[in-house]
Amino acid sequence: MHKQQLDSLKQWFAGYVRTFYTPDDDYLNNNIHLKECHTRRVCAEMRALAEALAMNADDALLAETIALLHDAGRFEQFTKYRTYKDSVSENHCLLGLRIIAEHNLLDTLESDEQRLIRDAIEFHGAKELPALDNRTLHFGKMIRDVDKLDIFCLCAENYRRFHEDKQSFVFEVEFPDAPDVTSAILDSILNNRLIDYRLLTTLTDAKLLQLGWVFDVSFDWTLRQMRDRGYIDGIMLWLPDTEATRKAADHINAYVAERLHS
């Protein structure tokens, strides 16, 4: 892959996203802007991770291409369904692959590069990665890591905004703001297991699910950024003070410290 190919895809992305903004729908515009900015930050995080992993130039370009296109389906998804929740709309990963195909975005790339990009995008939102060849698995882990890294940042900031001024919060809140923790969710945390979305009943559950993503981080670089930038603490700050949340937070902090040896 060459830099000119990535530059062309960046130009396409900018023009494509512009088509979703409208002058009379602030709610739509705010949510489109959210995902546009998310994509650009994920690209930057991917470049940093590729450097940390000492990837060669061609592979770094492939990694950034995956980052650029990983949420290509989100814009049509929100415009059509007014939600980013796949379970009540459609799988945004598969929608993104359809958009990539419709616009012939990968046609100038080698066939093995096309397959790798498509596979990484298809499974970046899955609960777990399926059996893939080692090279594809590596890129799949990279996009999942940097996606989570930026979502951690967004969650910490959005929880702050929500709890400081709920009336003016402009994004969708799916669950009631209650302190209750579903027992199966706490059990998953204490056993280093990812949480099933179907178990969520409260906003506290949702916060613990997001914090539990630390168990699915593949690269120590990513986990270190989450911790050192204050993203983990930034979500924990808005947990209600209960026995269940204290147990969960203590366990997560201990896991991160042990894994990073600090």
Descriptive account of the structure:
It is a single chain. With 262 residues, this protein is an all-alpha fold. It has two domains: 143 residues, no CATH class; 87 residues, no CATH class. 64% of the residues lie in helices and 0% in strands. Helix 2 packs across helix 7. The termini are far apart. The mean pLDDT is 95.
Summarize the structure.
The chain has 262 residues and is mainly α.
How many strands? 0
In percent terms, what proportion of residues is strand?
A: under 5%
Quickly count the helices.
12
Name the shape in a single word: globular
Helical amount: 55-70%
**pLDDT < 50 stretches:** none
Question: H/E element string?
Answer: HHHHHHHHHHHH
Topology readout:
Elements: H1 3-18, H2 26-52, H3 57-69, H4 74-81, H5 92-102, H6 111-122, H7 134-164, H8 183-190, H9 203-211, H10 220-228, H11 231-236, H12 243-260
Primary descriptors:
single chain, 262 residues, mainly alpha, 12 helices, 64% helix
